[in-house]
Design brief:
single chain; alpha+beta; six-stranded antiparallel β-sheet
Length: 261
């Protein structure tokens, strides 16, 4: 099966969206440098995430992943995508065409500073090293090969595309299909299957997870699972303190290699 997403790229096996992008440069007799190519890949990643360029007319589609749309929009870059040595492309979601995500890319020494500005909503940034994603420091169309595009996809989507999408959807009162928008009861149920270390790590990821991690019934379950303590009726703070005391005692016993009482 051919790769569909940029993160599916393997050496010698290029997604059709990337082939479309390279054909665009060849067709227009452009000689792209490493920054041009990376900006083109970021354009693909925004479309993969459900965005479309502001000037496009097919806003009747949803804002989820759509492979046909990806192939169509990867065949070209928007007009004025590059002015001198800076780049700017404007993206929107079908659910909120009035909220424009301005993707601005600026070369800084050998790196590329990427900012996504959503006016009156939020701003997201990431610094990329373009040469990380090529097998050679000499980048010429037709004589180079990409590498580590799965890293580029994860980095950009986690730092720019997904946060921007969540921010736009939240600003319009919608709900995005992501972890932090899961119902409180479901978050607590998921946490009941985790170790205490994982619960505390998860609680630091977002406000929703932090609030769910303070559910007293969760800590009763943790105490029961780790120390066989049942039927405890206390507040979250008391339960967490009790867990820490029992954990400290258990850890001390292990370190001293003493048998349990």
């Amino acid at each position: 099966m051919e790769p569909m997403l940029l993160e599916d790229h393997r050496y010698g096996d290029v997604p059709r969206s990337v082939s479309n992008l390279l054909t665009f440069f060849e067709r227009n007799k452009l000689t792209p440098d490493k920054n041009d190519l990376i900006v083109g890949l970021l354009h693909i990643l925004m479309v993969e995430s459900g965005f479309v360029h502001k000037a496009c007319t097919d806003l009747v589609e949803d804002c989820d992943f759509n492979y046909k749309r990806l192939l169509r929009h990867s065949q070209s870059l928007p007009a004025n995508w590059k002015v001198h040595n800076s780049y700017r492309t404007d993206f929107v979601l079908k659910s909120a065409p009035h909220l424009v995500s301005n993707l601005i890319c600026t070369p800084v020494a050998d790196d590329l500073l990427v900012n996504c500005v959503i006016k009156d909503v939020d701003t997201f940034s990431v610094l990329l090293d373009p040469l990380t994603y090529f097998t050679s420091s000499t980048v010429q169309l037709g004589s180079f090969a990409f590498q580590s595009l799965d890293h580029l996809a994860r980095t950009f989507k986690n730092r720019i595309a997904f946060p921007a999408k969540i921010a736009v959807v939240a600003a319009t009162g919608g709900i995005c299909g992501c972890f932090q928008d899961l119902p409180h009861d479901l978050l607590v149920r998921i946490m009941r299957y985790l170790r205490i270390q994982d619960v505390m790590s998860l609680a630091r990821t977002c406000r929703a997870a932090c609030q769910s991690a303070q559910e007293p019934t969760l800590w009763v379950k943790l105490l029961d699972a780790d120390f066989r303590k049942k039927n405890i009726c206390k507040t979250y703070e008391e339960l967490k303190f009790l867990y820490e005391i029992k954990y400290a005692r258990e850890l001390n016993r292990i370190l001293l290699n003493r048998p349990p009482n």
